[in-house]
Amino acid sequence: MSDQALIQDLQEAIGVEKVLTSLEDRIAYSYDGTFEQDLPDVAILPESNEDVAAILRLAQEYDVPVVPRGMASGLAAASVPFGGGIVLSLTKMNRILEIDEENHTVRVEAGAITADVEAAVEEFGLFYPPDPSSNEQSTIGGNIACNAGGPRCLKYGVTGDYVMGLTVVLADGQVLRTGGKAIKNVVGYDLNALFVGSEGTLGVITEALLRLTTKPRAVRTARAEFPALEDASRTVNAILDAGVVPATLEMMDETAITCIEEAMGLGLPLDVEAMLIIETDGSDEETVLREIETVARVCRESGAREVIIAKSEGEREQLWRARRSVSPSLARKAPNKLGEDITVPRSAIPEAVRRIKAISADYGLPIVIFGHAGDGNLHPNILFDKRNEEEWKKVQQIVGEIFQVALDLEGTLSGEHGVGTLKRPYMEQALGRLSLDVQRRIKGALDPHGILNPGKVLPGP
Amino acid sequence: MSEPIEPSTYPPAERTAEDEYLHCIRCGLCLSVCPLYRLTLNETDSPRARVALLRAVREGMIEEPSDDTAARFFSCLLCGACTFACPSGVTVDRILELTRGEMSDLGLLPEPLVALSQRIAEGHNISGEPNENRLMWADNLPDRPRGIGKEEAEVVYFVGCVSAMFPRSYSVAQSFVELLEKADVDYGLLGEQEWCCGYPQAISGEPDQARGTMRHNLEAVRAMKARTVVTTCPSCYHFWKHTYPVALGEEIDLEVLHATEFVADLLDADRLPLRKDMREQVVTYHDPCDLGRKAGVFDAPRRILDHIPNVTLVEMPENREGSHCCGGGGNLESFDPALSEAIAARRIRQAAETGAKTVLSACQQCERTLFSAARSERIRIRAKDIMELVLEATA
Q: Which residue of chain A is at minimal alpha-carbon distance from B47?
């Protein structure tokens, strides 16, 4: 490949100012939310479908990899340009194209920041429920490409559940439109589902039509403290059995509680094995209140030592503060953290936590566990200093063991972060050969030259 | 190389600025609060990229920093919004201030800053005019300020280069001095013995020069036997309060106050009688970065507004720690005036959206930037320094 010729062609096709080639610019596009890094040959900021199509045609012609990127807060190195090539940053394609108040949909460009979309539809009394905790620093396109989840997904589901249609620029530069505003749609294969979670390996998502609901008018929050982790875990089912589907059901185990308390001093109890933060929401204040009271009763019956229901917005804020303090607390404890994202069946949470704690003890490195108890999605965070080679080696071994715990308990590698490169080595074990073979054939059909985010998601044959 | 000066002293104190960049976990949360990134949507302009760039310099990915490398460290507002948002507590603005010094040591100081350093070295102020002109702002006051020529005073008003030397900002100094006189404060002005506070030199890689000028100022204030130094400029305030003791290596045995704190105390003590017949008005208040986020002065200006009759304060959604830079921070104006203006335009629109007819600030730089933005955006809102409003309100 002739770098210079490609860059010149790119500049001619879409404009000089959208093509960044200095070393300083390339460094800015060399990383994501992990500690992985590699320099692209060029970073491009397209502003339209036509720009993206032109870039992909040239990439195919020059046989150069293209790594699509939103705000690069991903946690699996999916947007790190290993081995160089083109980083395609969609951040400037951030327009909100249409809010359809009657049909409750919003059409946005892929680079729109998730929190901005949430705010825009709320002005119309509408609600976009997926709430990855990175909603301020991630884009809708990135959320779709990784099928991001969040605390609210027990009741409301994940990003993919809200995708009704997509505009995707294919590897050869053709622009594909999938889905539409019709809620029921079984004509042909579900191509929306194909691109959701594809991490930029099948096409470049440039626009999305998203489903909305009406904004819940009332919300109530409770925090429950459990001396025994098993009880906390049992409680989740007991709440659902009582007919309440909470909007969120967050769990922090004692490693997380201790870590937060050490860093922040919020006055959390240090003699419990788990805390749950539970929220109910809905259109009717009385119903929501009744539901949270049911939740509180069930918690007590299932072994909670104390349950606090927030009576005001201020008190609600207080209850959430513990959960929101997790990240800063981790950062204060060690220079590096590796946050895993395994999921297990709900009933296996206590066993998973027990096994992860044992791994932590074996290796002598702290692992802090929190997660979304309602859907069995756990975030064990390993704390370490990457400059210490011995610790780094241990971390890599621990990761393998944590994945093994998930698979042994009939769970899987990732609930919402995605595969990227970090989980690739474990894919065959998680999915089996045939599943990978089918996926490789899909990849081959859509990207015959292998220019779209190569080396991500699927391991080599 | 001489010992650099750390212009900002934030927690966490246990980390040295040297290895601060190692604590960036690249989560990207800073992007959401960075006024520059929000405008350009280009990662290059983000705090995370600047930290990554510093790391690349330290770890050899950039073998030899170029002018282009240095430019990335200078094209930042130093507003500190990222520092407040960072879950790891990485003080990006502190890192950049230090890195600017390093770039200067490598001979990579951008031209406008080289010229600025020369002006300060030659004339002891940022304007390029002789320092004898330090008191020209007082010429068209009805009475000659009593603080001029005093040998001793309880309080020294440290005017700062901008309000002293740039006619556009004279009114800040004039208003404050009139208030001091009305409250019968025993104050003095240093006149040509006031030199630049040292902040511009410290962040341009001239630590020894900066220490010289700081030492001079401290001795001049001590010679007046003053107990208090008060400034209207938030940057002078921040620098006097947080950097002087550290950089000079001694307790400076002086109370350092910003004019908003000083006036709020005067009002609390009933030493500034106010008119009851002020017209009804709705105002909003813009927190200057150096006064608010960096020095923690949020309540004093709001206390002042509580005192003034018939004035209603409506806050912008981005206020206090979450304040949005006026666009005038970090010398960005010298490198990229268009970008600086675009940031100012965004802030003035936020101010106008509150419905206020006046946006107040407590910084001559913010006032000027917001004033120009209102003009160029054709938004009917007045930008004013809070001292001017207090003066209007005094009987």
A: A28
